[in-house]
Design a protein that fits this description.
Number of helices: 3
Number of strands: 0
Strand content: under 5%
Largest sheet: none
Radius of gyration: 30 Å
Shape: rod-shaped
CATH topology: Methane Monooxygenase Hydroxylase, Chain G, domain 1
Distance between the termini: 118 Å
Helix content: over 70%
Number of domains: 1
Order of helices and strands: HHH
CATH class: Mainly Alpha
């Protein structure tokens, strides 16, 4: 029955999104702690889940064109379960997107903070170099003791 396959795809999508949400939470911790190496590992794992999610979404495409009311379900409970799982998927996707946005904002803030510190450091180095150069300049002097 096609609706059983549809329900299995929706369940698969839910499982992927739950994994993505979990990884997004771990990602958030790594961003907050500045652990870039671990962050890259999480992003690589999430990339694999994104590939899986896209493949599942492609399998769901034919069902999007159907009128849900015309589908034949094994039972009304099965239909309701699929509807609830689909709603949960939408909710999880929203959560994942929100976590991604928070991570992006935090990374931008860290980037801007690092850029500011680099500018301060460069200014300090330039001031030190200018001071050092002015100290090493020979100064002219007159010997007023000689006749």
């Amino acid at each position: 029955m096609q609706t059983e396959y549809l329900a299995s795809l929706i369940d698969q999508k839910l499982a992927i999104l739950e994994q993505m949400r979990q990884l997004s939470r771990v990602q958030q911790e790594h961003v907050a702690n500045g652990e870039i190496t671990h962050l890259l590992q999480i992003l690589a794992a999430k990339q694999g889940l994104i590939v899986d999610l896209r493949a599942t979404e492609r399998k769901l495409d034919p069902y999007r064109e159907q009128d849900p009311e015309t589908r034949t379900w094994r039972s009304e409970e099965a239909r309701e379960h699929c509807r609830l799982v689909s709603q949960r998927c939408d909710q999880l996707l929203g959560e994942v997107m929100q976590l991604e946005k928070q991570c992006e904002d935090a990374l931008k803030q860290r980037r801007d903070s690092c850029a500011e510190r680099l500018r301060d450091l460069q200014s300090g180095v330039a001031a030190h170099a200018a001071y050092h150069d002015s100290q090493s300049q020979p100064t002219a002097s007159f010997d007023l003791t000689a006749g």
